[in-house]
Amino acid sequence: VENAQLSAARNSDFANAAREELMETKLRVGNLTAEINQYQSQNAALENRVKELQEMLDKDRDLHRKRMAEKEKEMAQAQKKVQEQLEEYEHLLDVKLALDLEINAYRKMLEGEEQRLNISPSASSRSTATQASEGRRFLHGRKRKMRAKKRECSAGFKTVQHASTSGKVSIEEIDVDGNFVRLKNNSDEDQPLSGWVLRRHLESVSDVTYKFPSQFTLQAGQVVTVWGAAAGVSPGPSDLVWKSQKSWGAGFDIGVTLITDEGEELAERKLMHVPRGEESGEQDDEYEELMGSEVELPSQ
């Protein structure tokens, strides 16, 4: 009986301990459940915040793309306007050069007539110059007529070119109409022209430069032609296009200089229009022939 009582007491103690442990476990489970619910609510709030931020990001991205498209459109319009202004400037430059050519031709013709007739400059000469200027204004907006008159007046001139070179590459030719400039590699080795430039000097006009494309190499013994944009030539192995200039220009004095990437001037060529009367015995006849063209100009 005593053993049974002792065993019952021990079992009662074990049961009490298990009951207390069960209560503690339930309490711990309740706390953990509350924490899980709290974490779930926080996770839901964070997911909502992420969704809101994603929507804001999408809106900002769409707005940015729209603004970029508008800016690109504005840049395209600005580039188009700049190109139109550049073409207008080049047209005006061509007109100015043609008018300068005519002015010098008329001045030479008037001087030749005065010398031939042994008369001094008078009011009639100034009146003739005024009539010539009125005729030039008539030709201002007609480029084709301007070029025809330019060729007519240039009949009293001859073209002279002077060239010099101190390297392997030389400037072989300057087109009298300003369409192109041609270079030649006179050596047996290829010559890289990356970073090299051609500088054009045209009377009172500011100098402009053409820069050769990167990685461009002029083969040994070969030539390369740099065309103006108005020439309508497609780029090729031996043909380059100066896209920012319609032509190399035309006038009494045109100079082109080849400059290396280190700033050294290796080659130069000058093209000049010299009155034929200065170097021939037919000065009076030529001036008389050109004077006839001048008299007809105001009537047009």
From TrEMBL:
GO terms for biological process: heterochromatin formation; nuclear envelope organization; nuclear migration; nuclear pore localization; protein localization to nuclear envelope. It holds the Pfam family Filament. SUPFAM superfamilies: Intermediate filament protein, coiled coil region (SSF64593), Lamin A/C globular tail domain (SSF74853). Its main location: nucleus. Residues 1-117 form the IF rod domain. PANTHER family: LAMIN DM0-RELATED (PTHR45721), LAMIN-L(III) (PTHR45721:SF16). Keywords: Coiled coil, Intermediate filament, Lipoprotein, Prenylation. Residues 280-291 have a biased composition (Acidic residues). Belongs to the intermediate filament family. One of its GO terms (cellular component) is intermediate filament. InterPro entries: IF_conserved, IF_rod_dom, Lamin_tail_dom, Lamin_tail_dom_sf. The lineage of its organism: Eukaryota, Metazoa, Chordata, Craniata, Vertebrata. This is LTD domain-containing protein. Residues 15-95 form a coiled coil. Residues 115-145, 271-300 are annotated as: Disordered. Residues 120-133 have a biased composition (Low complexity). Signal peptide: none annotated. GO terms for molecular function: structural constituent of cytoskeleton. Residues 157-277 form the LTD domain.
